[in-house]
Specification:
The chain has 290 residues and is an all-alpha fold. The protein has helices spanning 2-23, 32-42, 48-59, 68-86, 102-106, 108-127, 134-146, 153-162, 170-195, 200-227, 230-233, 244-248, 250-267, 276-286, and strands spanning 95-96, 99-100. The protein is built from 14 helices and two strands.
Length: 290
């Protein structure tokens, strides 16, 4: 199953790359720099969130073509969030995905414009998706916009920027993780469930699975940030030290990651064996440390 997940990652990555490239076209030479900045940050990702959208959609027998653009939109939102994260007044990171951060190459002003543009174009991509009904377009667009507004990224970035280093405790770190990481996992999962006409109980299960997987994923990222080599991790590992690991220690962080992972897996029980691909993805994501 793990080999199948790896192969699926590559297939979805190729499709997401194609859909994103189609969006980032420029009819005006005046904004060449903006397009280049956005393209720079969208390139190179593993497309984990896109795969997540597809696997949830498969759970509800959704055809792949109905998920492609929504999955690409999730990845565009993720790229926008990374640009924000790396800015000097946020984490002040110089490295992302193994190359200089966006603002290092294009400047803070252009980087911010690129982030805003990616958020906007992600929403437009869904609203222009002819494979979805108008009702589906609107539902998905609503879920995705919630992932970066007051209920998602913007809230998490604000607390990260203004409160984390002043009032560091578990609730603050958990809030930041919920809004900056888990919220987009939830949006990706709910997108697949919505397009698949999931019941209320099924949507609640996918939401619980997505949120807890997002928490576990972020804690493992925190462990790698503290212990990892920036050349291997692909980003700076010394700019955001006040993370979950620094708060509770590595052993407790790994225990919490396992706890959140188990909660995620428990949420899939209502789907039986049909959710095995999602279970395999969880294992694939959480095996980044030992």
């Amino acid at each position: 199953m793990q080999n199948k997940i790896s192969s699926f990652l590559q297939d979805i990555k190729a499709t997401a790359d194609r859909d994103i490239e189609a969006v980032l076209q420029n009819d005006s030479g005046l904004i060449d720099g903006l397009i280049k900045s956005a393209s720079y940050s969208v390139a190179g990702g593993k497309r984990i969130r896109a795969v997540f959208t597809h696997l949830v959609g498969q759970l509800f027998d959704v055809k792949a073509e109905k998920l492609h653009k929504a999955a690409a939109a999730v990845e565009m939102i993720h790229a926008a969030s990374l640009i924000m994260d790396d800015l000097p007044y946020m984490d002040d990171s110089q490295l992302r995905r193994g190359k200089p951060a966006n603002h290092v190459v294009f400047g803070q002003d252009v980087a911010l414009c690129a982030s805003i543009a990616l958020l906007s174009e992600a929403t437009a991509l869904v609203l222009d998706d002819d494979s979805l009904t108008i009702e589906e377009q609107n539902k998905v667009a609503r879920v995705l916009t919630e992932s970066y507004g007051f209920s998602g990224l913007a809230a998490g970035q604000y607390v990260d920027l203004k409160l984390k280093r002043k009032n560091v405790d578990y609730s603050i770190i958990e809030f930041i993780n919920a809004k900056k990481t888990a919220a987009l996992f939830v949006a990706a999962g709910k997108t697949g469930a919505m397009i698949g006409n999931a019941t209320e109980a099924q949507t609640a299960a996918i939401t619980q699975f997505s949120e807890n997987l997002g928490f576990a994923f972020q804690i493992i990222d925190d462990i790698l940030d503290v212990e990892g080599d920036s050349k291997v991790v692909g980003k700076d590992t010394d700019h955001d030290k006040m993370n979950f690991v620094m708060l509770v220690g590595r052993d407790e962080a790994q225990r919490k990651a396992a706890e959140y992972s188990q909660r995620a897996l428990d949420a899939l029980n209502i789907f039986g064996d049909k959710a095995d691909a999602l279970r395999a993805l969880s294992e694939f994501l959480l095996k980044r440390i030992s």
